[in-house]
Design a protein that fits this description.
This protein is an alpha/beta fold. The protein contains 17 helices and 16 strands. Strand 15 and strand 16 form a beta hairpin. It is elongated. The structure holds acetyl coenzyme *A, 3-methyl-2-oxobutanoic acid (KIV) and manganese (II) ion.
């Protein structure tokens, strides 16, 4: 029994996606992506345009020879040589499709093809018949359909269905359509073409006005049952409808649209990553579904909501589309709930609300200076808050000298207050000069030699933040230092960490 609500997903990343300037792929790269598309249970993989080059022929052939669970398709113009080449590439396909096309808009017929409409109909019918002689699954596209006349489309479609086309694709080739109009076109075609029920109607929308997904959804609502789309929305100019958005919109709003696909959505993020790494086209962070921020929350009010009940700010789960989890990003918009929750995950609980509030105030100060606050920063902040009550070592002065063309030299003076003496030490190197200097100072205390130092630096030339991680006897503490000079920031961080170690040691062995 056929499922009338099932939408066929036709992925054209390897054909239209590859037409993006700079996105050309080798045969091996295309094969890797095709395998991932098969794993994702894409219904049809358009593997390329066999006549375009010997390399593209080899790619389509390799994919057709390998892929078993998805239909493999090659594009061809309505020309003998193109159709035959496509057929040749698909000869071993478990399930193959020839996709032939010709433009039907007045502007394309007149200026590009330089053919009159009757000739276009004749060539389309001829091409479909020739393809049907090679393969049973033939798709026909009316290039630039959204700028074509409805009566002419009805005429040509009826004829190509009679000639054996099993899928009729209505492309919005130049991304000109708007959803209501495009849905209406599909509905009119289905209603007016007498043999429309003998073919699946498909759409192929470009994103020149950012409407590719909206137009695709309007089309399926009007009765289309195949959507042509690409991973990450790759494709000519502004790209094609993005597969991940179409699939997740159908799934998430099944209540309204009443449709579904056969896609294994957990393979979406791996597919997106693969396409991005192969093409070198980064995915913008705010891209729906597959962008790094698609399931990330930085705002305190949102974080608080998500922590209380995830659905307050998420309409899908990160896991459903292949992320490991959603993400709480700590930044200047974050609030206490997320701050506390993240630190608890890191193993730090606050002893009082006062302690939380002090650490949170320091966090807001730091967040005003820094784009993103990392776990190390958070741990350092808490260490710092706790150490501030116990300051054994104090940085009383620090001078940095640097000479052009040479490694800067830091001269550090540190006062160790409990011993009530001043020690001076010197170090060199752009960032760790201060560490060396202070290490040589405290080196007189044999136990301190056990410390290991890890510096995590961030910030710009004018504003540096340094986190130093110290370890002693299995205890790890973090110190945070911030200054306009990275070396001074390093020294502050180191001293804070030392104070923290001393303070926790004091707690374990209180002096009476
Ligand atoms: C909307 C789309 O995405 S359509 C697909 C676009 N993709 C590509 O073009 C990528 C691959 N293309 C190619 O490698 C080359 O263009 C080839 C191999 C297909 C053709 O190369 P050439 O023979 O040198 O032709 P060229 O690209 O210069 O021009 C296209 C020709 O095809 C004709 N043509 C365009 N579409 C069709 C069609 N559907 N059916 C028949 N002829 C067509 C044009 O009118 C033009 O013919 P002309 O040379 O007689 O004026
Ligand atoms: C070849 C066709 C389907 C196409 O890519 C378009 O019209 O955009
Ligand atoms: Mn296209």
């Amino acid at each position: 029994m056929t499922d009338n609500n099932r939408v066929i997903i036709f992925d054209t990343t390897l054909r239209d996606g590859e037409q993006s300037p700079g996105a050309s792929m080798t045969r091996e790269e295309k094969l890797r992506i095709a395998k991932q598309l098969e794993k994702m249970q894409v219904d049809v993989i358009e593997a390329g345009f066999a006549i375009a080059s010997p390399g593209d022929f080899a790619s389509v052939k390799a994919i057709a020879d390998t892929i078993k669970d998805s239909t493999v398709c090659s594009l061809s113009r309505a020309l003998d040589a193109d159709i035959d080449r496509a057929g040749e590439a698909l000869v071993n396909a478990n399930s193959g499709r020839i996709h032939t096309f010709i433009a039907t808009s007045p502007i394309h017929m007149k200026y590009k093809l330089q053919m009159d409409p009757d000739k276009v109909v004749e060539q389309a019918v001829y091409a479909v018949k020739r393809a049907r002689n090679l393969i049973s699954d033939v798709e026909f596209s009316l290039e630039d359909a959204s700028r074509s006349e409805l009566d002419f489309m009805c005429r040509i479609i009826e004829k190509v269905i009679d000639a054996g086309a099993r899928t009729i694709n209505i492309p919005d080739t130049v991304g000109y359509a708007v959803p209501e109009e495009f849905g209406h076109t599909i509905q009119q075609l289905l209603q007016r073409i007498p043999n429309a029920d003998k073919a699946v109607f498909s759409v192929h929308c470009h994103n020149d006005l950012g409407l590719a997904v909206a137009n695709s959804l309007a089309a399926v609502s009007a009765g289309a049952r195949q959507v042509e789309c690409t991973i990450n929305g790759l494709g000519e100019r502004a790209g094609n409808a993005s597969l991940e958005e179409v699939v997740m919109a159908l799934r998430t709003r099944q209540d309204v649209l009443g449709l579904h696909t056969g896609i294994n959505t957990t393979q979406i993020v791996p597919a997106s990553r693969l396409v991005s790494s192969v093409t070198g086209f980064p995915v913008q962070p705010n891209k729906a579904i597959v962008g790094a921020n698609a399931f990330a929350h930085e705002s305190g009010i949102h974080q608080d909501g998500v922590l209380k009940h995830r659905e307050t700010y998420e309409i899908m789960t990160a896991q459903d589309v292949g992320w490991n989890a959603n993400k709480m990003v700590m930044g200047k918009h974050s609030g206490r709930s997320a701050f506390r929750a993240r630190l608890e995950e890191l193993g730090t609980t606050f002893e009082s609300d006062a302690e939380l509030n002090t650490a949170f105030a320091r966090f807001k100060d730091l967040a005003d200076k820094k784009h993103e606050i990392f776990d190390e920063d958070l741990q350092a902040l808490v260490s710092d808050t706790r150490a501030s009550h116990y300051e054994k070592f104090k940085l009383s002065s620090l001078s940095v000298t640097s000479q052009t063309g040479e490694v800067p030299v830091a001269k550090v003076t540190v006062v160790v207050s409990d011993a009530e003496h001043t020690a001076e030490a010197e170090g060199s190197g752009p960032v760790d000069a201060a560490f060396k200097a202070i290490a040589s100072l405290v080196g007189s205390d044999a136990s301190l030699e056990l410390y290991s130092v890890n510096a995590i630096t961030s910030g710009t030339d004018s504003q540096g933040e340094v986190t130093v991680r110290l370890e002693k006897g299995g205890r790890i503490v973090n110190g945070l230092g911030a200054d306009t000079d990275i070396i001074i920031a390093s020294a502050k961080a180191y001293i804070h960490a030392l104070n923290m170690l001393e303070s926790t040691e004091e707690k374990a062995h209180p002096q009476v």
